[in-house]
Amino acid sequence: MKTDIAALAFDKMNRKTKPPGSLGVLESVAVRLADLQQNLEPKLSKKRICVYAGTHGVTAEGVSAYPSEVTGQMVLNFLSGGAAINVLARHAGIDIHIIDAGVDADWPDILLKQRQFFYRAVRRGTSNFFQEPAMTRVECEQALDVGREQVRAALRDGIDLLGIGEMGIGNTTAASALFVALCGLMPEDAVGRGTGIDDASLRRKIEVVAGAFERSAPHCSEPAGLYWLHVVGGFEIAAMAGTLLEAAKARLPVVVDGFIATAAAAAAFNIDQRCRDICFFSHRSGEQAHGKALEALKVEPLLDLKMRLGEGTGAALAMPILEAAAKILCEMATFESAGVSQTLSSELRTPNPKLRTPNPELRTPNSEPRTPNGER
Amino acid sequence: MKTDIAALAFDKMNRKTKPPGSLGVLESVAVRLADLQQNLEPKLSKKRICVYAGTHGVTAEGVSAYPSEVTGQMVLNFLSGGAAINVLARHAGIDIHIIDAGVDADWPDILLKQRQFFYRAVRRGTSNFFQEPAMTRVECEQALDVGREQVRAALRDGIDLLGIGEMGIGNTTAASALFVALCGLMPEDAVGRGTGIDDASLRRKIEVVAGAFERSAPHCSEPAGLYWLHVVGGFEIAAMAGTLLEAAKARLPVVVDGFIATAAAAAAFNIDQRCRDICFFSHRSGEQAHGKALEALKVEPLLDLKMRLGEGTGAALAMPILEAAAKILCEMATFESAGVSQTLSSELRTPNPKLRTPNPELRTPNSEPRTPNGER
To answer: How close B343 gets to chain A, by Cα (Å)?
Structure first.
């Protein structure tokens, strides 16, 4: 059943008025969307990005250029509508949900009443993973559930396309550690400058990532993705992984934002391979290790705009491209319907009389030349 | 004056709530747009793509996979609303103009009355440039004027952002020849498979491109861009170049589509360097030589989606990204307005009390921890 729709969508795409394959990535994206929705006319009219926030204990090691408090301050900025993700989501007609998965902040009551805010903090920030596991196994399951809940809400609300993004000072360090654990990157290849640290902090960040592995026991029965999420992850990263795990069950397409969201995807892929089918990687981040991580995961992102902000900003820019791909499959004319010659020039140098346009008045006549009336 | 606005826009961008540079290419695009519009709040609300069509005499050499008649048939498809450019322009709220700059077709009267169609054919197709110059110098000037006219119309209509795209079976051959002449590419590097030719046609296409140079006399007093446009160009390519030349005078930003539009840009840059300031290159085409041509022109495209259709489809996908960049500069909060700490963590570990949010109720309080009410 699944394969049939993909094959039919591929065939439908090849009958459109364009050389086969000439719309590049749009074509393969459209076929994947048709397959996921089991519909030759995939629709992506309702879009939402879930921005998960979490505080990271590992910031105590001096791995970030910004103080840990910025995580909570940025959540307020998201809810005031002034952050980059707000601007880009409004631009593309994308709804946003802000989820506190574990931020060290007290929220005023007025905030807790906001419809787009979800106060689901597992704890007020992870433990410092350089010293001890970031969270307990139970907390990790709770964080995964925070993400799963958003998929159920999305399905209830008729969302066609979900995005995942995050905010968490220190979380590039956690993401780098996950790439070391799950994608086989070396610490020095997996670590970048995050929000913009200097050389000394970069060396420290590499030490911190490498150190986490010296201390940690190898995992046993559970999937590596689950084990490392609790040892070096973050509450917002686990929540993003939970979103992917639940979306895979429902075959709901999800746009993965940048470096940190990709780390969540690496964990989710390890736990359940079906997550691969639903993920669309929005962009290659300016964070240097992201390219290597995407390569290790054998995925190709849509954009490469040197962005490295997170928040779901890359997902917000990529979503309209997915929507465009779906519309190509739905709305574009075929060679038959438009009366356009499809045959190679060596075989046919005049229009095929059997091909017709929908409107016979709009056919190319083969009458006498006449002077263009528009010349000046 | 010009430099001042760019510097102010750069400064404004750096006060936004994000690490400096973290929005990558969006930031530099926004600064360029502010500079072009001489406005710290650049607006791109009205967008239009001009799709120029032309027939190419060089198709007689067997360089294309499609018969020459497809050019006219696709113009009809554009006007019926069923082509890829129609779908993508509708998706992004972009108006389109279809301009016959020199198509070998007779248009029914009903077509000539369409507001979005401009019948400006210089001639019913170029001459075969493998045998003789594609057009006369006078015709080349006429074709440039066809493009200039569209800029004047765009300015009258209050268009903020213009795009250029094209349709013309055989025009990858003309574009390749222009890249050889103007960017110093070797014929075998400048030629690709276009709409999808086989190995034999590819070898022929290289011969045809190389052959045009053996026959042609070197240019004398006029700019090389102008000379080669008439010798190996196309009416739609010259019209696109005319659009850029006129837009440069008005400092109107123009999004350049793909391989063939880039050849028009190469000619325009050679004729008037100011064209560089207004051009935004939408994407790196799947046509293999495009990357080399962009490199030779020292420009970086926004997208890389392996598209190679033309019609302005790449421009249509890139325009919303330019619009997003402008909105970032206009709408995003600053560190001051949002009350977000900007200082490095080594210097400041608690929020700066001097920083305030616009809404005092939405500040992060530093009171006692409390249990999240959202836990399950």
So the answer is: 7
Q: How far apart are CA B213 and CA B215, in angstroms?
A: 5
**A191: how many CB neighbours lie within 10 A of its CB?**
30
Closest of B78, B51, B55, B61 to residue B234, by C-alpha: B55
Using alpha carbons, select from A85, A115, A109 the residue that is nearest to residue A257: A85
Measured CA distances, B312 to A362, B87, B99, B254, B283 (Å): 22, 11, 13, 12, 11
Interface of B with A in 89-118 (CB under 8 A): 90-92, 100, 105-106, 108, 110-112, 118
* Per-residue tokens: B163: 């795009």
Residue B322 C-alpha, separation from nearest chain A C-alpha, in angstroms: 11
A111–B332 C-beta distance less than 8 A: no
Check CB contact of A343 with chain B, cutoff 8 Å. Answer: yes
Option in B67, B72, B374 nearest A119 (CB): B374
Q: How far is Cα B103 from Cα B123, in angstroms, rounded to an integer? A: 7
From the list A311, A323, A368, A375, the catalytic residue is A311
Cross-strand partners of B303: A303, B283
Whether B289 contacts B191, CB under 8 Å = yes
Backbone angles phi, psi at A118, to 5 degrees: -125, 110
Other C-beta atoms closer than 10 Å to the C-beta of A331 total: 17
Residue B87: which of A106, A304, A327 has the nearest Cβ?
Answer: A327
Instruction: Answer whether residue B251 shows pLDDT above 90.
Output: yes
> Tens digits of per-residue pLDDT, B79-134?
999 999 999 999 999 999 999 999 999 999 999 999 999 999 999 999 999 999 99
Q: What is the pLDDT of residue A195?
A: 79
Range A207-235 burial, b when 16+ CB lie within 10 A, else e? ebbbbbeeebeeeeeeeebbbbbbbbbbb
pLDDT confidence tier of residue B288, bands split at 50, 70 and 90: confident
DSSP A68: T
Instruction: Quote the pTM value.
Output: 0.90
% pLDDT > 70, chain A: 89
Regions of chain A with pLDDT less than 70: 1-3, 217-220, 342-376
In this complex, the residue of A84, A119, A313 whose CB is nearest that of residue B372 is A119
Q: Under 8 Å CB-to-CB from A368, ≥6 apart: which residues? A: B106
**pLDDT surpasses 60 at B376:** no
Beta-carbon contacts below 8 Å between A and B: 312
Structural Rg of chain A based on CA atoms: 24
Beta strand pairing call for A161-167 and A254-256: parallel
Calculate the average pLDDT of chain B: 90
Q: Count of alpha carbons within 13 Å of A50, Cβ hemisphere only?
A: 33
CB contact B69 to A (< 8 Å) = yes
Establish how many alpha carbons lie within 13 A of residue A82's alpha carbon, considering only the half-sphere containing its beta carbon.
22
Sheet with strand A279-281: strands edge to edge: A117-119, A95-102, A47-54, A161-167, A254-256, A279-281
Average pLDDT over residues B9-35: 97
Nearest C-alpha in B relative to A88: B324
> Helix, strand, or coil here: A83?
coil
* Amino acid at position A333, single letter: A
Which of A191, A246, A255 shows the shortest CA–CA distance to A50?
A: A255
Q: List the end-to-end C-alpha distance of chain A, in Å, as a whole number.
A: 59
Residues of B known to be catalytic: 311
Q: How far is CA A299 from CA A191, A199, A291, A361, B48, in A?
A: 20, 30, 10, 47, 34
Q: With CB atoms and an 8 Å threshold, state whether B345 touches A17.
A: no
A19 at the B interface (CB within 8 A)?
A: yes
Residues in chain B: 376
Nearest CA in chain A to B317: A321
Output the pLDDT for position B372.
Answer: 42
